[in-house]
Amino acid sequence: MLDPGLNLPPPPAGLDFDDMLKRGMAQVLQRSDADQLMSYHIAGGSAVERAAGALWLRPMLPRLDPGHLLVCHGAQAALAALILTLSEPGEALAAEAALYPGMRRAATELGRRIVTVGGDADGMRPDLLEQACREGAVRAVYLNPTLQNPTGHTMPLARRRALLQVAARYAVPIIEDDPYWLLAADAPPPLAQLMPAQVCYVSTLSKCLSPGLRTAYVVLPTRFLRERFLTTVRAFSLMVPPLPTSLATHWINDGCAQQLLEGIRQETAARRALADTILARTRTGAQDGYHLWLPLPSYWSAQALAQAAQSQGTSVAAADRFYDAGTAPNAVRVSLGSIRARAQVAIALKKLALLLARRPAPSTPGGD
Ligand SMILES: Cc1ncc(COP(=O)(O)O)c(C=O)c1O
What is the CA(186)–ligand 1 centre distance, in A? Predict the structure, then answer.
């Protein structure tokens, strides 16, 4: 089943992930003792864990000072902690119209407002961000500029620079949520590389290795922010979970993480090739990553297609999951990663292609 709720990397091509996991855990257990693994640890990760994080982030942030890096138990927790660190209840965070639902959920639950800043084909428009900043309401800007979830859009370099300049002029920090950079074929440098002082950078291992590792790296530009962030994280979680984070550290240091990433890239490319063949006439958007963003013909509403897909044992995410009420385009996101067997992906994509090729059944609500 293509489950829109399960935004998972595909299983790595050419690797026995089960075996890699068992061997990795055995090595972690051999090298550490129970006291070490089953005790409390300092929030933000040990020096060894931070050094592994800096090594992993080297393609994105080659000049990173490991002292600026903190380890957190996933990007979702890091985003919630950053919202608390950077803003007060009732204040506003700027974001693009298409927004990772977890960010909207965290902001809403924490009593912050999301102000949508309009965009064009390159992403958020700098003039509109400037207008929002001038009106004085914005405490931070949230961006997911590389292989954006859900559209797969990657913001070009010039737009990154222009947005950074606006943010710097108004002293508004940018939260750069960057789970997919290592899956992009040719992405521009992260905002955090272009202007480190302006960016709070979050890079989770969930999408390029595995969500079960519950490990994200957070790079914050000032000691003040790092201390505030740690105080906030400690309020809802005392530390990163030692077992999965030890495994992530071990895999980064022994090269398994790189192999796993390669396997995920290969499987993603194979699945994209399948989608190119099967959905040739309908597919648009990004050329890499494991999400497809499909604008729909007018005779299908996103909700009707999602429902029809569901009734055939497959599923897609209607665009309204990612947009403010009433503003979503008529489109769906297809996740190519959550089905385990590649052959099943082909079957699910063929079902989707057949649905797209015909008009909705008259009884399907929402179709015209
Ligand atoms: C853009 C984005 N940010 C953050 C997350 C959450 O990542 P984590 O599993 O590390 O909490 C996701 C997961 O779907 C995501 O797509």
Answer: 21
The residue with tokens 């494991």 is 290
Residue 184 CB neighbours (<10 A): 18
Predicted local confidence at residue 36, as pLDDT = 84
C-alpha count within 13 angstroms, C-beta hemisphere, residue 30: 7
Report in angstroms the alpha-carbon separations of 113 from 123, 255, 297. 20, 42, 33
**Token pair recorded at residue 295:** 């604008």
Q: What's the CA-to-centroid distance between 76 and ligand 1, angstroms? A: 6
pLDDT tens figures, 199-251: 999 999 999 999 999 999 999 999 999 999 999 999 988 888 899 999 999 99
- C-alpha of residue 35 to centroid of ligand 1, in Å: 31
Q: Is residue 335 a contact partner of residue 365, using CB atoms and an 8 Å limit? A: no
* Rounded Cα gap, residues 279 and 183, in angstroms: 21
Of 6, 105, 149, which is best to mutate to test ligand 1, by the most ligand atoms within 8 angstroms of its C-beta?
A: 149
Residue of 30, 9, 61 lying closest to 218 (CA atoms): 61
Q: Can you list the alpha helix ranges (DSSP code H) found in 237-317?
A: 242-254, 256-278, 302-311
Q: Please give the structure tokens belonging to residue 127.
A: 């003039």
What value does the mean pLDDT take over residues 98-107? 97
- My answer on whether omega of the bond before 150 falls inside 30° of 0, hence cis, is yes
Question: Using CA atoms, how far apart are residues 319 and 52, in angstroms rounded to an integer?
Answer: 37
pLDDT tens per residue across span 229-240: 999 999 988 888
- DSSP state letters, 62-82: TT--GGGEEEES-HHHHHHHH
Which pLDDT tens digit goes with each residue over 60-95? 999 999 999 999 999 999 999 999 999 999 999 999
